[in-house]
Design goal:
D-Maltodextrin-Binding Protein, domain 2; 11 helices; 332 residues; transcription regulation; alpha/beta; Arc Repressor Mutant, subunit A; elongated; 3-stranded antiparallel β-sheet
């Protein structure tokens, strides 16, 4: 680094001071001036919600004179009149401007303390996965994790991007792929089945198809963009049905939108088994044809090498793999 001598810096030493070439003074933490004791701020916050000193003192469990003294001290400290005294307390414009700020301070403080007390003795685990997998597969199962491992506090993040596991990244990830994650620890979780689904309303309107080729006369919902999961042309090819290019009216950006359109009766969706479990179980969607078509890619548990031996990660991984094994059986 190149250094130069800056004589213009406001430093109270007589000897020369060498600093980086840009000669910028060091950043100083701002001093919090005119900050009263917390009890005084609390008295102000409570008084803003009451009509008299008497009722405010009852909430604070102090005398009326104590409340009056604290508020007078605050007004003297800030050089502002906060209340118009009379038969009833009324905020001045200055008091009205400060009241929501002080109230928000106490609300944030109480919420943070409650959160910290809840976390006491627990270990936080940041998990990254795709939005659709988190919403449809992982979230419904998280209560089971809380019951089995109450010591683990999950922070769930969603992203489709590659993860580098830098200091700001999550601790572990669940990714859809072929298992090739160089330099990382990865374990296979599950592989989904792919099949058509339709709402009862659509089948009532169009009738139920008796063979796969009949689907070509139905509105077929399509996904947009490159995707690791096969689309309609691959499914028809797998079952041996030749098709011309599909007539499309709408392409959907992600899995969740496609499933939602199917639920609304707008067409038949090519769904992944892990994304329609609840909808099939409660009858909102119906699986069409029991033709096996396994996804060419699977879900993998991924983390930096070495941390997979940490106790809380072992607990989460074992729970995750057990849930995946059970789900895989249901997909057969």
């Amino acid at each position: 680094m190149v250094y130069s001598f800056c004589e213009s810096l406001p430093i109270h030493y007589h000897e020369p001071v060498f600093m980086p070439i840009n000669c910028q003074p060091p950043t100083r933490t701002p001093v919090m001036r005119d900050l009263p004791p917390t009890a005084t701020l609390r008295a102000f916050e409570v008084a803003t919600r009451h009509a008299t000193f008497t009722s405010a003192s009852e909430e604070l469990h102090v005398t009326q004179s104590a409340v009056s003294h604290q508020l007078k001290h605050l007004e003297d400290l800030w050089g502002l009149q906060l209340f118009q005294r009379g038969k009833a307390l009324r905020l001045t414009p200055a008091g009205a401007a400060l009241a929501p700020i002080v109230r928000e301070f106490f609300m944030n403080l109480e919420a943070t303390l409650a959160d910290l007390r809840e976390q006491k003795g627990r270990v936080r685990l940041k998990v990254s996965t795709t939005y659709s997998f988190a919403l449809k597969w992982l979230l419904p199962r998280l209560p089971s994790l809380s019951q089995q491992h109450p010591e683990i506090l999950i922070t769930l993040e969603t992203s489709d991007k590659a993860i580098k596991f830098s200091s700001s990244d999550p601790d572990v990830a669940i990714r859809l792929g072929n298992g090739n994650y160089p330099g990382l620890h990865s374990e296979f979780m599950l592989r989904e089945q792919i099949f058509p689904v339709a709402s009862p309303d659509l089948l009532n309107r169009f009738g139920a198809p008796h063979e796969p080729a009949e689907l070509l006369r139905y509105p077929l919902l399509t996904r947009d963009g490159a995707d690791l999961v096969p689309k309609w042309d691959a499914w028809f090819e797998h079952i041996g049905v030749s098709i011309a290019p599909l007539k499309e009216s709408v392409r959907f950006a992600d899995t969740n939108m496609t499933i939602e359109a199917a639920l609304l009766g707008q067409g038949i969706a090519l769904a992944r088994s892990g994304h329609v479990e609840a909808e099939i179980n409660d009858g909102r969607l119906i699986r069409l044809f029991e033709l096996p078509f396994a996804s060419p890619v699977g879900y993998y548990f991924v983390c930096p090498k070495g941390i997979e031996t940490q106790p809380h990660i072992i607990s989460f991984r074992n729970w995750l793999l057990a849930e995946s094994m059970q789900a895989q059986k249901n997909y057969q």
